[in-house]
Amino acid sequence: MTDYPAMIAPVDHVEPVPRRIRAVLGSETVIDTSRARYVWEWSYYPQYYIPLDDIHPDLLVSEGRTQHSGRGTVEMHALRLGDIHRPRAAKVLRDSSIDGLTGTVRFEWDSLDAWYEEDEQVFVHPRNPYVRVDALRSTRPIRVELDGVVLAEAPSSVMVFETGLPTRYYLERGQIDFRQLVESDTVTACPYKGVTSGYWSVRTGDQVRPDLAWSYDFPTRQLLPIAGLVAFYNEKVDTFLDSRRLERPTTHFFRSSTD
């Protein structure tokens, strides 16, 4: 069985971010830097560490607490701007044994209202510079089943190849049997694709498996070929490509391929 651990860089690896990074709180830009650092606190993706000099001077409010990390002792700070107050939002690293990290700040992503790389908004977490995402049109026939029930059958798809993940197959809505799907209120976001516009659970017999299919109506510019199409978690359904049943992969989304 293929495992997809998405291990891209070692923990505490540091390198410069070649892109301008900005963040907004309320209606004001409070971070604006071309000197950020990528820091891999874990192996799936990095965090931004921002130089203190590139942060709005009144933004950080000390909370009088410290924490210890492998990168050094950090001082805990809240964010304050006008009437906005965000506690436990920032970690100031005054002194670090790791080159390039002294005098930097690591922010909790959701403590800011929006993040930008150059002039494009980024969602969830920084994009990993070692991840590549491609959307390719394919005329290889595909069928999706669960418990022997056909959920979709299509003569073509858009295949999304993302580093560290199995291939995802995005299908035209007209090729999907929506009688087997139950609309969900779930919304997720991806740094590479954007914000989802729909999720569906799958009903077979008396059983409903939650949130197995999704769609992006307005994906990022790089993933425009998937706009309006629907994909299934192939960790949890049976996918037939060129009439050949594919193995269910194991990913960090679903550690087991069984129900």
- Oligomer state of the chains in this structure: single chain
Shape: elongated
Q: Calculate the terminal CA-CA distance, rounded to whole Å.
A: 16 Å
The domain count comes to: 2
CATH superfamily of the largest domain: Domain of unknown function (DUF427)
Helix content: under 10%
Please report the total strand number as a whole number.
24
Q: Describe the largest sheet.
A: 7 strands, antiparallel
- What number is the mean pLDDT? 93
Task: Please name the CATH topology of the largest domain.
Answer: Metal Binding Protein, Guanine Nucleotide Exchange Factor, Chain A
- Structural class of the secondary elements? mainly beta
Sequence of secondary-structure elements: EEEEEEEEEEEEEEEEEEEEEEEE
What is the level-2 CATH architecture name of the largest domain? Beta Complex
Alpha carbon gyration radius: 21 Å
Low-confidence blocks of residues? none
3D architecture notes:
This protein is mainly beta and 259 residues long. It is 0% helix and 47% strand. The protein contains no helices and 24 strands. The protein has a seven-stranded antiparallel beta sheet, with no helix packed on it. A seven-stranded antiparallel beta sheet has the order 12-15-16-22-21-20-17, with no helix packed on it. A four-stranded antiparallel beta sheet has the order 3-2-10-11, with no helix packed on it. It starts with 13 loop residues before the first strand and ends in a 14-residue tail after the last strand. The model has no long low-confidence stretch (mean pLDDT 93).
